[in-house]
Design brief:
Number of strands: 0
Shape: globular
Strand content: under 5%
Order of helices and strands: HHHHHHHH
Structural class: mainly alpha
Amino acid sequence: MEIWYWLVLVFLLTYEPVYGFFDYQKFKHRVQRNPGERVTYYKKVMAGLWLPALFILGLAAIGPPSLEDIGLKGVSLDTQTLGKWPVYISLSLAALYIVSLIYYLIGSKISGKMKNEIVKVKQSELEKSKFADILPVTKKDKTVWTYVSWTAGITEEIIYRGFLIFALPLLFPSLSTWAVLLVSAVLFGLAHTYQGAANVVKTAIFGLFFAVLYIGLDSVIPLILLHFFIDYIGKIGDEGNENQV
């Protein structure tokens, strides 16, 4: 069975970090000539995420691993594997983050001033972004982008948290638990090479935080929901700003 784990690992090391990087460079030139290329690109991104995720779920269907092995199970607090402090600190940070997201979500709904400030911040970040070409512009873009966000929430948590944290100790028995979490986080960061080196590092840090949460909660399901929530909050200020196509 380990040959299949190696296959997934090789795919993760080559598809997004290498092929995805160069394909994005080509996309940037294509989209300047034809804005409709965004939807085509989004569909390719979703296919690239669902392919390994469905393969992993297929493996879990015949076992091993089982669905429980890749984190598709109920929440159970685990403070033994990493220790109490890493788990409690990560849970506290996650709770604070969720509260802040809810604050901005509600604030954007009831305060036009706050919504405008959020839009200005988003616009400023967009202007500095090295991957602005990929972001949705038209109404159709944003509709498909929603599916991309949901796809990422489900598949990335199954792949980079559930599967990798299960498979890496089997493929590399000498790795400590923290080393496994770090490797999974680095692979998650490398999947975003098209965003530039700085964002690869930021994404890897985010991935390590989510990996600690995964160990502490012993389930990938809360992470999928949190991933959804973060993507949803990211849409604040988009209403009514899309170009019609």
